[in-house]
From TrEMBL:
Pathway: One-carbon metabolism; tetrahydrofolate interconversion
Residues the entry annotates as binding NADP(+): G171, R172, G173, V239
UniProt-recorded name of the protein: Bifunctional protein FolD
Catalyzed reactions per annotation: (6R)-5,10-methylene-5,6,7,8-tetrahydrofolate + NADP(+) = (6R)-5,10-methenyltetrahydrofolate + NADPH; (6R)-5,10-methenyltetrahydrofolate + H2O = (6R)-10-formyltetrahydrofolate + H(+)
Domain Tetrahydrofolate dehydrogenase/cyclohydrolase NAD(P)-binding span(s) in chain numbering: 145-293
A Gene Ontology cellular-component term: cytosol
Similarity comment: family membership: Belongs to the tetrahydrofolate dehydrogenase/cyclohydrolase family.
Assembly and binders: Homodimer.
PANTHER family reported in the protein's UniProt record: C-1-TETRAHYDROFOLATE SYNTHASE, CYTOPLASMIC, C-1-TETRAHYDROFOLATE SYNTHASE, CYTOPLASMIC-RELATED
InterPro entries for this protein: Aminoacid_DH-like_N_sf, NAD(P)-bd_dom_sf, THF_DH/CycHdrlase, THF_DH/CycHdrlase_cat_dom, THF_DH/CycHdrlase_CS, THF_DH/CycHdrlase_NAD-bd_dom
Length: 296
């Protein structure tokens, strides 16, 4: 078996086309949605993700505002930058690029973001709304964390069902695993989820029971072909820089062994799978926030 490719670039293009249409409609009403970003430090991966986010905003007709601080910035300086973005009328919603440098309390920084301007869905109020919103029909509208929402969109566009299926998520982090478990178990989505982590005793045995596997741990090629049920859908989210090419470009490895393509029914490439969806769903969160801010 060769797995069908869950092409994140194609799926992200469809999301971005819809966002661009909605941005154009808002502009006709005099509203220009704006994304703000705050980058602290000089991690090359974070810098390249933030640069990509600004490129995306230009592509869909949005405005963007970029705040940068050195790796030596204090917690107070970071909180002051968050306050500037909270107060900036040109910023509809913004993100604080994670991870923050060692010694900075990430939760305090995320909590300082105005929940109405939270483009990442990571403010405790918005995560709480996700917890409460097990029934989307009665839920308060709130941004969803971008990678989990992107994974659901990628599966939906490729008609991979999750309702009634067993999804095994590897990784309990706040940007992917934990909110993904909440999203997948909402009414209407109706998956059964096993959320695994570094202390799960027999990871291979858990993964073998999965109809859908989401690997978000950052361990190169952790998920082996003999862990995967034939025909399962496998989403490769984690990424590790494992060196540099001769031309100086970073060499990346996903969490999924390439041999899994011979066993799985569907496989997201990495790069080119979930990463572009994370960026596209960020744009959707910003345009959602802009539409919420104007009368219907
Ligand atoms: N505030 C946040 N910080 C971080 C998040 C997040 O959702 N919010 N997620 C990740 C990083 N991330 C977005 O910020 C992100 C990761 C990967 C990609 C992406 O498009 N990757 C490309 C490959 C890019 C490369 O060559 O390095 C791909 O997969 O094709 C976009 C965004 C942690 N921090």
């Amino acid at each position: 078996m060769t797995a069908a490719r869950l092409d994140g670039l194609a799926a992200a293009a469809a999301v971005k086309a819809d966002v661009a249409r909605r941005v154009a409609a808002l502009r006709e009403r005099g509203v220009v949605p704006g994304l703000g970003t705050l980058l602290v430090g000089d991690d090359p991966a974070s810098r390249s993700y933030v640069t990509g986010k600004h490129r995306d905003t230009a592509e869909v007709g949005m405005h963007s505002v970029r705040e940068e601080l050195p790796a030596t910035a204090s917690q107070a300086e970071i909180l002051a930058a968050v306050d500037r973005l909270n107060a900036d009328p040109a910023v509809t919603a913004f993100i604080v690029q994670l991870p923050l440098p060692d010694g900075i309390d990430e939760n305090t920084v995320l909590e300082a973001v105005d929940p109405d301007k939270d483009a990442d869905g990571l403010h405790p109020t918005n995560l709480g709304r996700l917890v409460l919103g097990v029934d989307p029909a009665t839920a308060v509208p709130a941004p969803l964390p971008c990678t989990p929402a992107g994974i659901l969109e990628l599966l939906a566009q490729n008609e991979v069902p999750v309702a009634g299926k067993h999804v095994v998520v590897l990784g309990r982090g706040i940007t992917v695993g934990r909110p993904l478990g909440l999203l997948l178990t909402r009414k209407g989505t109706d998956a059964t989820v096993t959320l695994t982590h570094s202390r799960t005793p027999d990871l291979a045995a858990e993964v073998r029971r999965a109809d859908v596997v989401v690997a978000a741990v950052g361990v190169p090629h952790l998920v082996k072909p003999d862990w995967v049920k034939p025909g399962a859908a496998v989403l490769d989210v984690g990424v590790t820089r494992v060196g540099t090419t001769e031309s100086g470009k970073a060499k990346l490895a996903g969490d999924v062994d390439p041999g899994v393509a011979d066993v799985a029914g569907f496989l997201s490439p990495n790069p080119g799978g979930v990463g572009p969806m994370t960026r596209a769903l960020l744009l959707r969160n910003v345009v959602d926030a802009a539409e919420r801010s104007v009368p219907a």
